[in-house]
Amino acid sequence: MLHVHAHPASQPSRSVFWACVITGQSFQLHADPSTPSSISPRGQLPAIVDDNFKLVEMPAILTYLAQKNSWHDLYPTNLQTRARISQYLHAHHNLTRLATLKLMAPHVLVVFGGLPSSNALSYASNTIIETAMNSATKLSDGQTLVEEVINFVAKHYLGSSDFVAQTAQASIADIACYEEISQLKWANLLDLSNWPSIAAWMARMTDLPHHDAIHSFNTTLGDIKTQPITMERFMGAIEVAMTDLVALPGVSIP
Ligand SMILES: N[C@@H](CCC(=O)N[C@@H](CS)C(=O)NCC(=O)O)C(=O)O
């Protein structure tokens, strides 16, 4: 049995959920607020335990599961195709994810009064979030960086292709990228219609199976720009998302 320690409010966690349900990979979901360090040394989500094998880091998890279970649609076998997927996934952490973190995290973490103390090892992301939280111009600062990154992704990854690693259909690179970018639309933090190729790619991604159930945390939470988030809204969105997740085929809870 595959155990997935992850949470619907977490972008890399949703990437793992979504890839599993698209491919029919069943798993037991552990959505505890913090992951034991015996499973995730930094306490971060997502983490998996596959029989006795423990693994963290979303791209490592997705490529491991894809290779183990022959997810040839999401992870085609061609060497150069895999290299392009890998190229995006390596860039992802310091490109798309850091940019969306700068824009999104201060608007979300305000509900907790700041960063969780457990992520002291995450120096780069901590610094970005702390600086943004203390800035009077955090919205426009975050938007400026995300706009740069979206321009870059649109030009150098998506290009004239339908998907970010130039694949014929969506790959795990698209799933990782989509989780970061799409959340901004539901949160009302960025108007993505300014990038027609990104908007068209996002529309293609919504056609993947179980899109709506995987994103019900975001759609339920909704606008966090003009309606600042409250703990009640946050917990309400998690409750809806958990209900939708456990109703998906192959997903069980302990
Ligand atoms: N590079 C990691 C990032 C994981 C990550 O940032 N997880 C967040 C949730 S979205 C987390 O666990 N934060 C709590 C912490 O760092 O203590 C991945 O791709 O899996």
Description of the structure:
The structure is a single chain. This protein has 254 residues and is of the alpha/beta class. It has 2 domains: 86 residues, Glutaredoxin (3-Layer(aba) Sandwich); 152 residues, Glutathione S-transferase Yfyf (Class Pi), Chain A, domain 2 (Up-down Bundle), CATH 1.20.1050.10. The protein contains 10 helices and 5 strands, in the order E-H-E-E-E-H-H-H-H-H-H-H-H-H-E. A hairpin with a 2-residue loop joins strand 3 and strand 4. The site of glutathione (GSH) has 14 residues, from helix 1.
List the helices and strands and how they pair.
Elements: E1 2-5, H1 11-23, E2 27-30, E3 47-50, E4 53-56, H2 58-68, H3 79-109, H4 123-133, H5 138-158, H6 172-186, H7 196-206, H8 211-214, H9 216-221, H10 231-246, E5 251-252
Parallel strand pairs: 1-2, 2-5
Antiparallel strand pairs: 1-3, 3-4
Glutathione binds near residues 10, 58 and 116.
What tags apply to this protein structure?
2 domains, 10 helices, 55% helix, Glutathione S-transferase Yfyf (Class Pi), Chain A, domain 2, alpha/beta, binds glutathione, 254 residues
